[in-house]
Hints:
Structural class: mainly alpha
Largest sheet: none
Number of helices: 19
Shape: elongated
Radius of gyration: 33 Å
Distance between the termini: 125 Å
Amino acid sequence: xxxxxxxxxxxxxxxxxxxxxxxxxxxxxxxxxxxxxxxxxxxxxxxxxxxxxxxxxxxxxxxxxxxxxxxxxxxxxxxxxxxxxxxxxxxxxxxxxxxxxxxxxxxxxxxxxxxxxxxxxxxxxxxxxxxxxxxxxxxxxxxxxxxxxxxxxxxxxxxxxxxxxxxxxxxxxxxxxxxxxxxxxxxxxxxxxxxxxxxxxxxxxxxxxxxxxxxxxxxxxxxxxxxxxxxxxxxxxxxxxxxxxxxxxxxxxxxxxxxxxxxxxxxxxxxxxxxxxxxxxxxxxxxxxxxxxxxxxxxxxxxxxxxxxxxxxxxxxxxxxxxxxxxxxxxxxxxxxxxxx
Length: 341
């Protein structure tokens, strides 16, 4: 009788284990089926409200829903990407970064970034502030790649947002922002000037002053104002900024006028050498010849670029005149001219 009871208990345990296992399998299968259905509804949604609803369902499904939630980022489904981003933000908005659920929600995006399309990476820029808080050790490096890709986003808003993120110390991509000073969209150029124009004390400049001179002639008045403000912050006064405006002027006549103004600039330009050297590389031959003439008249002691012009300028007339002015400068030096007297 005791043996029968023992056998019955064993049978009962086996049945219980089978029941629990079957239930677990059924639950897992149900989760997979539910996620697949939600993924289908998400993919086929025709309105923003529907996309938001099913994106939220996929986020709540955890790992089972992640593949369907990431699908729009591998294609050019901008509406799907936007819905997924909003759903993720809503899910982790009330969570601490130390909460395991926070990392669990972010990790599929970090892992999937490499397979995102260009449009998907641009959309993922929206999640960078949240992804940076993920405790995964390579989260920052992956976010940096997303921001770098976002600087070439197809929309101006995407590029502007990436510029702002590039300013973050963890991202530190200001050198990549510099080319956007020439972006076709004014709003992007404004953001770029704000990012790379001012130079905090003790921090090397990402772009030189001359790169900002072009901003002084930008078609957009706000870009012009921002460029001027950036140059002021770098120590240039109003007179120097006016000379910079002439140096970068698209009209060659204005650049020729600068040659005259440099001779009367006084304390605003104590050393005209760098300005003349820049004008010696001007696209207009007349401006280059003028730079050589003024260098000779000002008896610049260190105008080695005159030799370059005399020997290598693409225009034969410029080479001839530069050689002439170089000869005059050499004669002055031989006569014992001391520029320091």
